[in-house]
Amino acid sequence: ESAIKEGVEMVLRQMTDVLKSLDVEEIAAQGEKFDPNLHNAIIHEDDPEKGENLVLQTLQKGYTMNGKVIRHAMVKVVN
């Protein structure tokens, strides 16, 4: 089992390094102000105790490549 875990971790590290070399970055979402250029709101919640247009939860990570969005982050937004 530990050999399998180690192998998977090695593949993950290699994949992360390849993505970094291609200038692929994760879009910050959780706790950020909703930005329709970066985020795709698929769930909306009303809660007067929380801020306006705030991303509560990231349901699927989004990514940019060379500063351009290649996949929007799917998020849950409040208010």
Please tell me about this protein's structure:
This protein is an alpha+beta fold. The chain has one helix spanning 2-21; strands at 24-26, 39-45, 54-60, 63-65, 68-71, 73-78. β4 (63-65) and β5 (68-71) form a beta hairpin. The N and C termini lie far apart (46 Å).
Q: What is the structure about, briefly put?
A:
With 79 residues, the protein is α+β, with helices and mostly antiparallel strands. The protein has one helix at 2-21, and strands spanning 24-26, 39-45, 54-60, 63-65, 68-71, 73-78. Helix content is 25%, strand content 38%.
What is the element layout, followed by pairings?
Blueprint: H1 2-21, E1 24-26, E2 39-45, E3 54-60, E4 63-65, E5 68-71, E6 73-78
Parallel strand pairs: 2-6
Antiparallel strand pairs: 1-4, 3-6, 4-5
Main β-sheet, spatial strand arrangement: 1-4-5
How many DSSP E strands?
A: 6
Estimate the strand proportion. 35-45%
The chain-level structural class is alpha+beta
Globular, elongated, flat, extended or rod-shaped: what is the shape? elongated
Order of helices and strands: HEEEEEE
Tally of alpha and pi helices = 1
Poorly predicted sequence stretches spanning 5 or more consecutive residues = none
The overall average pLDDT, rounded, is 95
Q: What is the helix content?
A: 25-40%
Radius of gyration (CA) equals 16 Å
Let me know the largest β-sheet: 3 strands, antiparallel
Q: What's the N-to-C terminus distance?
A: 46 Å
